[in-house]
Recover the amino acids of this structure.
């Protein structure tokens, strides 16, 4: 009330100043709102580092995840295992895509996040030649910015693939991308719009497998729309991820990639370098146990049974004897 | 602004003007979805809006329903509908989504245009012996035209902006550049695509603004003769 009474004379004196005052009020409000959400805003580049200075000790471990359900399950596995080992854990899940959460990690807001080796490497080295799990893992430490490192990678992969229907595969005898050169029909591939510009997109297929393809952009990352397009023949091959439970059902088949066009995408923890040592004792055994089949099974439970990440994570950890 | 210079360079790059994915083709796709959806929205909403405005009934229902339609998340609706009709007919799903988005504005423009007319004018028209159809066609429709065109303008803007989603279900359009630009972190492409959408929105709006001026000249002289010419 008081503030309003004080503003009134300024309104009369000069409309411009009134505007400025109102603008200032709006800005203050916006700042106040930003400040409230500050801890959760992964874009804020200068937000105070959260206790990263004092490595070790009792500072809580901040575990992050991508905005991808399967990644959240992995983050939940890390979190529960860390809690079982006596760490205090803060969960900061669903932090968007790579740009955003990597900014949060380099600024020290997040300490651990489940990553995929190939995509992480390609983010920092777009032209990398590494393809196999070993090569990618070996190239990572040098590629990462200072302050970030990776721990042991799991055998589990969630990689790109070109997937066809079982019917197409059987009636044309095509089980590998190399078989496509001998296929007479037209090949149309479907995937996110960016696939068209990726090294494993149409240009990669042309170069490594001698196949000319048409491209249709379907933006759901190999999800139900892409799979639907495969079934109704709109596309011949879809860019579906290998940990998608639909591949376990058998109706769709991922083609083999003998020329290693796709990068290996092993699951591995991306961690703040100053906490790597204390976290490795807990996270390395998880990576040693995690297989692609486990990942597919957990994704299937999430999509099919609609279970939450925490339940799925607890069940897997218990099964593997990794809790306590 | 380096980013803007990069975006302009991207727009002028000959690579964007050749092949199946050239800018002109994307603009035409985008414009096609927009105009189709706007036409269908107009076909559905104008008669309905006139009915509401002329009879004065059903306004509450229309307000409630169009409020609900505005609240529907377009991307979710698009995904569900595309899965329902099959991705081969994704254009149908996209059109429905854009029509649902456009209807509230057109509907509001149509009935508000009729409601804004001075009741004396309409009573006078009836008193001269006009049938209800004549009242609607010769008095209400011309006088309500400016507000109706306003409704069409705001619907067109929303549809142009939301047709970006077409690229999500394999339909192309200008959304491709934005979605791909985000994923590849090629912000020149993303901003270039956004500028194209803005330009398209401005052009569509300018065309409809010209239509609005014509509508006002139709509405203004109609005020006097509408009452007198009827006999």
């Amino acid at each position: 009330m008081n503030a309003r009474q004080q503003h009134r004379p300024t309104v009369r004196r000069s409309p411009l100043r009134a505007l400025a005052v109102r603008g200032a009020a709006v800005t203050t409000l916006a700042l106040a709102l930003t400040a409230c959400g500050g801890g959760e805003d992964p874009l804020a580049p200068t937000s105070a580092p959260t206790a990263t200075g004092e490595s070790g000790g009792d500072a809580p471990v901040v575990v992050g995840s991508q905005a991808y359900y399967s990644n959240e399950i992995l983050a939940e596995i890390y979190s529960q295992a860390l809690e079982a080992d006596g760490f205090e854990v803060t969960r900061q899940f669903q932090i968007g895509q790579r740009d955003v959460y990597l900014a949060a990690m380099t600024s020290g807001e997040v300490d651990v996040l489940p990553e995929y080796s190939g995509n992480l490497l390609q983010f920092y080295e777009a032209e990398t030649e590494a393809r196999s799990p070993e090569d990618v893992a070996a190239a990572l430490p040098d590629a990462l910015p200072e302050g970030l490192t990776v721990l042991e990678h799991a055998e589990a992969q969630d990689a790109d693939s070109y997937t066809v229907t079982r019917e197409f595969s059987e009636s044309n005898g095509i089980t590998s991308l190399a078989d496509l050169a001998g296929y007479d029909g037209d090949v149309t591939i479907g995937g996110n719009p960016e696939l068209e510009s990726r090294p494993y997109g149409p240009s990669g297929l042309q170069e490594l497998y001698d196949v000319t393809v048409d491209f249709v952009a379907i933006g759901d990352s190999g999800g139900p729309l892409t799979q639907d397009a495969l079934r109704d023949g709109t596309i011949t091959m879809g860019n579906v991820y290998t940990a998608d439970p639909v591949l376990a059902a058998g109706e769709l088949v991922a083609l083999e990639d003998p020329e290693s066009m796709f990068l290996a995408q092993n699951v591995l923890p991306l961690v703040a370098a100053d906490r790597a040592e204390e976290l490795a004792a807990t996270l390395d055994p998880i990576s040693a146990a995690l297989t692609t089949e486990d990942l597919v099974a957990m994704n299937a439970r999430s999509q099919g049974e609609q279970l939450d990440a925490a339940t799925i994570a607890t069940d897997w950890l218990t099964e593997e004897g990794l809790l306590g | 602004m380096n980013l803007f210079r990069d975006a302009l360079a991207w727009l002028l790059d000959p690579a964007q003007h050749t092949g199946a994915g050239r800018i002109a083709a994307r603009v035409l796709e985008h414009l096609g979805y927009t105009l189709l959806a706007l036409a269908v929205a107009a076909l559905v909403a104008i008669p309905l809006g006139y009915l509401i405005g002329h009879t004065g009934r059903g306004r509450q229902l229309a307000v409630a329903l169009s409020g609900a339609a505005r609240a529907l998340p377009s991307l979710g609706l698009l995904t569900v509908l595309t899965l329902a009709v099959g991705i081969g007919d994704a254009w149908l799903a996209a059109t429905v989504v854009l029509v649902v988005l456009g209807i509230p504005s057109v509907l509001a423009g149509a009935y508000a245009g009729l409601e804004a007319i001075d009741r004396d004018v309409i009573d006078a028209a009836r008193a001269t012996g006009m049938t209800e159809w004549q009242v609607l066609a010769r008095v209400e429709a011309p006088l309500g035209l400016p507000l109706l065109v306003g409704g069409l303008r705001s619907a067109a803007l929303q549809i142009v902006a939301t047709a970006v989603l077409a690229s999500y279900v394999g339909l192309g359009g200008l959304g491709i550049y934005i979605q791909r630009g985000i994923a590849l972190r090629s912000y020149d492409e993303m901003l270039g695509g956004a500028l194209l959408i803005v330009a398209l929105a401005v052009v569509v709006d300018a065309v409809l603004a010209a239509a609005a001026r014509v509508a006002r000249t139709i509405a203004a002289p109609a005020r006097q003769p509408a009452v007198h010419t009827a006999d």
